[in-house]
Amino acid sequence: MEQLLYASRYCMVVENIARKNGISKSELLHREADDLAVRIALGETHVIAETKKHLARSGVNVAALEENTSKRNEKLKRSNHVILVKNLPFNSSEEDLAAMFQKHGSLDKIILPPTRVFALVVFVEATEARHAFKKLLYTRYKDTPLYLEWAPDNILSPTSTHVEEEEMNTIGERIITKAIVDQTVEGVSAEEIDPDRVESRSVFVKNLNFKTTDESLKQHFSTKLKTGSLKSATVKKHIKKGKNVSMGFGFVEFDSVETATSVCKDLQGTILDGHALILQLCHGRKDGQSAKKNEKDKSSTKLLVRNVAFEATEKDLRQLFSPFGQLKSLRLPMKFGSHRGFAFVEFVTKQEAQNALQALASTHLYGRHLVIERAKEGETLEELRARTAAQFVDEQSGFQRMSKKRKQTSLMDEGSVKFSRIVE
């Protein structure tokens, strides 16, 4: 999601923070404020979370947006009638966008989050959408050029088009606070996600309503299958006060890998008992035991924070992470009078660490994207430095390969317009 905040990222974050707190931008950006960088970082975190919540409530498959931007997938299948509109000024409105786009065809709807990060314009006819794309690409709107891109093909949940207002209300407030992909099931361990099953044919289903049963889960998928067949559907349960109660997630097994993969793509975000389902393909692996061992080697309460700007201090990191729980310790290893660019943050509980890991995954501090992961138990500073260096080399190699590929692609190739991310 962070990649969707393009050139106007920090301006947009500042606008959102200032309006939310009822202060002017000059007051927010006062040069004597010693926690300015942290306030901007937390503001960015809030903007991303609020955007995800609004999109999920509006029937948008946030997972598709995440996949689109994080993987830089050149071959990702694109919609032929949904346009992603970026680089919007904060005073953008649905009315203004509708007036601009409906000149070129009939609109189904416009989805504009309150954060104004971007908008989705949905046309009824693909030919009209294509005409609008050609005519409005880079058109100036309120003194800024519009950046257009075809949205992923599965950007909208099947129930979102032409949905009645009453039907949207039945989804309930849970979807507002539980955005797709933003969701984490409390208490789910690697062993629970990895039961004895044919994993490559199984789908892990999260965000289930606690009232959903095995039968209703099975019926939901079996009635929506286009090809293949369903083998089994199980809601994970545990004993609570002497009763079997749902844990909010389950597993659905299909007849083939192809069917499972298709289900993850086509049924992502579909509504069951008022909840937008989050689907994840269970990957089969030969080295299952070693994978589990690696997972166990990782700390449940300690986080490794990489790519920390050298301007950042221990105080900055404490202010950034403390809103998510009680800090047990925070270490910023030093060398020759400056820190090494990474830190260890340890929380009191596993859930607090998970909350921080999830919420700050897209956050920037002093303009640098914080790379956060669970730390390994007993890892030394030298081992960490070697691992970080190896990861940096891999990332740079991948970026260079992608850059070379992009040079061979015309920016005006319809549906493939890409924009560089701002400073990471």
From TrEMBL:
Organism ancestry = Eukaryota, Viridiplantae, Streptophyta, Embryophyta, Tracheophyta
Keywords tagged on the record: RNA-binding
**What's the protein here called?**
RRM domain-containing protein
Q: Which SUPFAM superfamilies match?
A: RNA-binding domain, RBD (SSF54928)
Q: Give start-end of the signal peptide.
A: none
Say if the entry is tagged with keyword Transport. no
UniProt-listed InterPro entries: Nucleotide-bd_a/b_plait_sf, RBD_domain_sf, RBM19_RRM5, RRM_dom
Q: Where is the RRM domain?
A: 81-153, 201-284, 301-377
GO molecular function terms noted in the UniProt entry: RNA binding
The record's listing under SMART domains reads:
RRM (SM00360)
UniProt organism field: Lolium multiflorum (Italian ryegrass)
